[in-house]
Write the structure tokens for this entry.
Amino acid sequence: MKSVNLARPGNPGKRLALTGIAIAGALALAGCGGSGSSGASGSSGAELSVQASYMPQPVSADMAAGFLTITNKGGTKDELTSVTSDSAGEITMHETNGGAMEEVNSFEVPAHGQLVFKSGGNHLMFEKLKHRPEQGDTITLKLKFAESGPLTVEMPVKSATYNPSTGH
């Protein structure tokens, strides 16, 4: 097998081709990394993001509700297993069935789908608030998943009568 020195000065065409191959390889490897802070990417894994998060200004000094949408653009489902915040002693997840609220331990985030938390449906309950959030404040949440890495969410506090255009 003959060895060829592609980096020698007299061979600029091959040097340029080699540089192009190196750049293409680096871009391909960069595509294998995580997406956002979810830690998963590609069509084979979950690709999680959060939109439309908000907390209506609570009427109670120690309890509030929170709403958001988790979107999974990936080809694998995941599961929201817990939510934490320095603003509350505890955050529980609830679903509403037939008008009855029930605490659940996790929610599935379907592949190529969404998990929606909305008024009258699935929602977060912030319990043992450390201070009463006011309209204009922002609450920082950490969402933890069964497979993906955690997501940090900045949840704005809206008026108690806020009605989002997104329908939740």
About this structure: The beta strands are 48-56, 63-72, 78-84, 88-97, 100-104, 107-109, 113-117, 123-129, 138-145, 151-158. Residues 12-30 form the longest helix (19 residues). The longest strand covers residues 63-72. The CA atoms of residues 30 and 159 lie 42 Å apart.
